[in-house]
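Notebook p. 47: complex prediction with zinc ion.
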Amino acid sequence: MTSLNRLIILIIGFVIGWLFGSLLNYVADELPLMRRLGKPACPACQAEYLILNYLFWPRRCPVCGAKRGLRSWIVEFGLGVAGALLVDFSPPGLGWVVALILLGYLALVTVIDIEHRLILHVTSLAGALIALGIGIHLHGIVPTLVGGAVGFGAMLLFYLFGILFLRLSVRLRGEQITEQEAIGFGDVNLSGVVGLLLGWPGITLGLLLTILIAGLISLAYLVLNILRRQYHPALAVPYGPFLTLSAFLLIYIRPLFFK
Ligand SMILES: [Zn+2]
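Predicted complex, structure tokens below:
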């Protein structure tokens, strides 16, 4: 392949990735608030966006002037770069298209969870279908289903333990429940999706990595609070982004270092 052809392919990869990123931004803007996909509208005043403003410039509402956040640029640029990089570095067994779709899915779940502390059932269901297909292709049907069951079951135990802990601390200390539970049921569903993706025994590594990252982030947060002399009891760790980060590291990054 000549270097010009190669450059053209990388640019096409970038452009398709960027466009896919715009689509993901649109879903992340609309789905959590409207629970459906309508015309792109301003989250502040509900006015409809002009499609040129929405996709290109200026990225602000034509009526109230509210700007679209930095996230829309990060997602589009990130998916664009991924679209180019995946031309050479798609995970083993995954073609460019599937690798990009899966990456977009992980990004979407992460963005919605960070912005709304929410993992929607509809994205979990779509994720389960994508993950089931990829899992069976990579690991075969039984390891995929076992992986999904273990991912779901392990996080379900965490979830039930979290509720038990909350009830106990309320009873022992007579406190009102002010903090929402650390793990929501969306995390349980997402853990099942990641289990399907990684299969058995890969999900064991996925869960360990998730707990490790969550622990490190919690520790950093704690140290930061001690340095600022603040104390926030009952820190609720959102597991969703750590689950997606672990899946990303194991599927996309690990094969670069371990063949
Ligand atoms: Zn507006």
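Notes: Residues 42, 44-45, 47, 61, 63-64, 66 surround zinc ion (CB under 6 Å). The chain has two domains: 1-89, 118-259.
Next step: compare against the earlier run before touching the bench.
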